[in-house]
Each structure stands twice: as C-alpha cells, then as structure tokens.
Design a protein that fits this description.
By secondary structure, the protein is mainly α. The protein has one domain. 73% of the residues lie in helices and 0% in strands. The protein contains 1 helix and no strands.
Length: 73
C-alpha cells in the first residue's frame, strides 16, 4: 500500500486535472453555444435569400414562348 502522503498527492493531482477538465468543458460549452447561435442566424439569412431569389425568378411554367434551340456550328 502507498503511504498516506503519496495517496494525498495522487488525490490532489486528480482533483487538479478534474478542475482543468471542468474548465475546458465550460469553455467548449460557451463556444458551442455561440456557434449554434451563429448557425441559426445563418440558416435564417439563407432562407431569406432563397425566398428573394424565388420571388425574383420568372416563372418558367407559365411562359407561352418556346425558345428555339441554339444553332449548331
């Protein structure tokens, strides 16, 4: 068995590692939250752009004119 001093040091080392890991997890969680917000905003902007493009694109189905095929050279 290990002496009491070695066990105490081992426990302190584990507690220190645990504190660093908790801090790293919290930092990653904050970054993830920021990125999720940015992704949601980008999705909303993309949907707006898609709607604008759809509104500004002429409807091809209702067009009576048929464009002739390009000439072959």
């Amino acid at each position: 068995m290990k002496p009491s001093n070695e066990l105490t040091q081992a426990i302190e080392m584990l507690e220190t590692r645990n504190a660093f890991q908790d801090d790293a997890i919290e930092q990653l969680n904050r970054e993830l939250t920021i990125h999720q917000g940015q992704i949601a905003e980008l999705k909303q902007q993309l949907a707006l752009l898609a709607n604008r493009i759809k509104e500004n694109t002429p409807d091809q189905q209702g067009k009576d004119e048929v464009e002739p095929p390009p000439p072959h050279y």
